[in-house]
Design brief:
The chain has 14 helices and ten strands. With 354 residues, the chain is an alpha/beta fold. It folds into two domains: 275 residues, TIM Barrel, CATH 3.20.20; 67 residues, Antifreeze-like/N-acetylneuraminic acid synthase C-terminal domain (Type Iii Antifreeze Protein Isoform Hplc 12).
Length: 354
């Protein structure tokens, strides 16, 4: 199976995951089957350079009570009951996900789906290299434990959670699984206003959970300059998961805050450029700075004529460019020594002069 996510994590490379979720409801607009629509979206993601696609696997009856209220912007998605919304989109089962997995393998993109119940966690297991656990299940420790025992790498979204809850979830996984966890900062606000993105939390996660990979599950609307994703990356998010659509104008579900293939291409270009600007971070002189280092730095220079045999004092020396002679950092090694030749005024001192 395709292992792009894990391989890129281990190589410290950026990963973009297109969360198709259940956005294959575009089938109605395109007048095609749900499966054809899902495959069309997979292919769109692949062609945009996205590394993996992720669906959502659930049944409304096992996910939400019939009286569960909405928590999203109802001006964008008018359904006011979670049960009613999920019932619209729980069309796929084991057979369909097997077909989608096979298609992803065929086109060369990693397949994932978030399971929301034990049954789907079981039948998805042979289809995925990595499990994704939703923010909504962060406190569902029995379910987390069940998936952790399958000993696959886990992506854990931590939206709407406090530190103690995150720690309990992480500890539950670590007790039952020896794979390195990926924590995804996430804001459960659909869409997330830019001022609520709280991207500084990514740095905090890196500090508090140094044993984990850190990423970001984004629910903001795509911005023209990809500033949200660029900032998340520069804060330390190695993985970015974002909802994906082929038509951002569609009303409802997750289309209104999703990226399309053009957004994805811009995100990947922006991150690549940010990577180029970031460099390696080593505290050392770059090869490209060598000439400037030599010529812009200073050397010890004779402030006056120094006759042969003279004991050199501090007053006889000054500091000037270029840095081809004795460094001013070594001035104490020069003071008190004798000149072994006549040193003209304004001469750059070298070690063979003293």
């Amino acid at each position: 199976m395709n292992k792009t996510i894990q391989e890129r994590l281990e190589k410290n490379k950026f990963i973009l995951i297109a969360e198709i979720g259940v956005n294959y409801d575009i089938a109605t607009k395109l007048n095609i089957s749900l499966m054809d629509a899902a495959k069309f979206m997979v292919l769109s993601a692949k062609n945009a350079g996205i590394h993996a696609v992720k669906f959502q696997t659930y049944k409304a009856g096992t996910l939400a009570a019939k009286k569960s209220p909405s928590y999203w912007d109802t001006s964008e998605e008018p359904t006011t009951s979670q049960y009613e919304l999920f019932q619209k989109f729980d069309q796929f089962g084991e057979a369909e996900y097997k077909e989608l997995h096979a298609f992803c393998e065929q086109v060369g993109i990693e397949f994932c789906s978030t399971p929301f119940d034990v049954e789907s966690a079981d039948y998805l297991e042979p289809l995925m290299n990595i499990y994704k656990i939703s923010s909504s299940d962060l406190s569902n420790l029995p379910f987390i434990e069940y998936m952790a025992k399958k000993n696959k790498p886990i992506l854990l979204s931590i939206g709407a959670s406090n530190e103690d809850e995150i720690r309990k979830a992480v500890e539950t996984i670590e007790k039952n699984n020896d794979k390195k966890i990926t924590l995804l900062h996430c804001v459960l606000e659909y869409p997330t206003p830019y001022e609520d993105a709280n991207l500084a939390k990514i740095r905090t996660l890196k500090e508090k959970f140094p044993q984990c990979y850190i990423g970001y599950s984004d629910h903001t609307k795509p911005d023209a300059g990809c500033d949200v994703i660029k900032t998340a990356y520069l804060m330390g998010a190695q993985v970015v998961e974002k909802h994906f659509t082929v038509d951002k104008k569609l009303i409802g579900n997750d289309h209104y805050h999703a990226m399309d293939s053009h957004d994805a291409e811009k995100i990947l270009e922006a991150v690549e450029y940010a990577e180029k600007l970031s460099g390696k971070g080593e505290l050392s002189c770059l090869e490209t700075e060598a000439a400037a280092r030599q010529n812009a730095r200073r050397s010890l220079v004779a402030a006056q004529f120094i006759p042969k045999g003279t004991v050199i004092t501090r007053e006889m020396l000054t500091f000037k460019r270029p840095g081809t002679g004795i460094s001013p950092a070594e001035i104490e090694l020069v003071i008190g020594r004798r000149a072994i030749m006549d040193i003209p005024e304004d001469e750059i001192l070298t070690k063979d002069m003293v």
